[in-house]
Amino acid sequence: MFDSGLVIAIFGATLCALLGGCGSALGVMYAGKAAAGVVSEKPDLFGKMLVLQALPGTQGIYGFLIAILVMVNTGLLGDPVELTVAQGWSYFFATLPMAIVGLISGIAQGKTAAAAIHMTGKQPDASGKGITMTALVETYAILALLTSILLIFSL
Q1: Distance CA 83, CA 31 (A)
Q2: pLDDT for the residue 1
Q3: What pLDDT is recorded for position 3?
Q4: Three state DSSP letters for 48-96
Q5: CA within 20 to 30 Å of 13's CA: 28, 37, 93, 98, which one?
Q6: How far is CA 66 from its chain centroid?
Q7: What is the dihedral of CA 19, 30, 36, 51, to 10 degrees?
Q8: Are 95 and 66 in contact (CB under 8 A)?
């Protein structure tokens, strides 16, 4: 059941969920620290701060989605498929775009969100601009997500 090809594919799925989750956790933490400072002085801005803090959390969701796709495609959630070592490495490498970009973009998006939070704290009407700036980082996470999905479905 757990031949080396399947183990390699599972390692890729695990790595993707792990790195995406770590990037999101760090990003949400950076934004949360900034939001706590603003909300302590301007409690009425909590709603705007919450949106900006939540944005870096998507990379963890994307990493989890790729991990689920690998588990479904390899039969891990049902009857495991016999995978050759080459097939296992193919799944592993298909997870890398989302794993690596998820880590880096989650952190970068958190730092951008923190800057947007500080801007919104000074100019509450600028929150839309801050969301736009933060969402631009998301573009690269979405491109990595699509790349990993296309690679998995091409196997």
Answers
A1: 42
A2: 53
A3: 64
A4: HHHHHHHHHHHHHHHHHHHHHHHHHHCCCCCCCCCCCHHHHHHHHHHHH
A5: 28
A6: 10
A7: -60
A8: yes
CA quadruple 56, 59, 65, 68: dihedral sign = negative
Closest by CA to 27, choosing from 96, 115, 95, is 115
pLDDT of residue 2: 57
Q: Which residues of the chain have pLDDT under 70?
A: 1-3
Q: For residue range 77-91, list pLDDT tens digits in order.
A: 888 788 999 999 999
Please report the pLDDT score of residue 152 as a whole number.
Answer: 98
Task: Provide the whole-model pTM.
Answer: 0.93
Which residues are within 8 A (CB) of 3 and not within 5 positions of it... i.e. 6 or more apart?
82, 83
Residue whose entry in the numeric block shows the structure tokens 């689920």? 68
Show the tokens assigned to 52: 């900006």
- Please give the DSSP secondary-structure letter assigned to residue 124: G
Q: Which domains does the chain have, with CATH numbers?
A: 4-153 (1.20.120.610)
End-to-end CA separation in angstroms for the chain: 20
Euclidean distance between CA atoms 7 and 100, whole angstroms: 20
Q: Note whether 8 and 89 are within 8 A (CB).
A: yes
Find out whether 47 and 131 touch, Cβ atoms under 8 Å. Answer: no
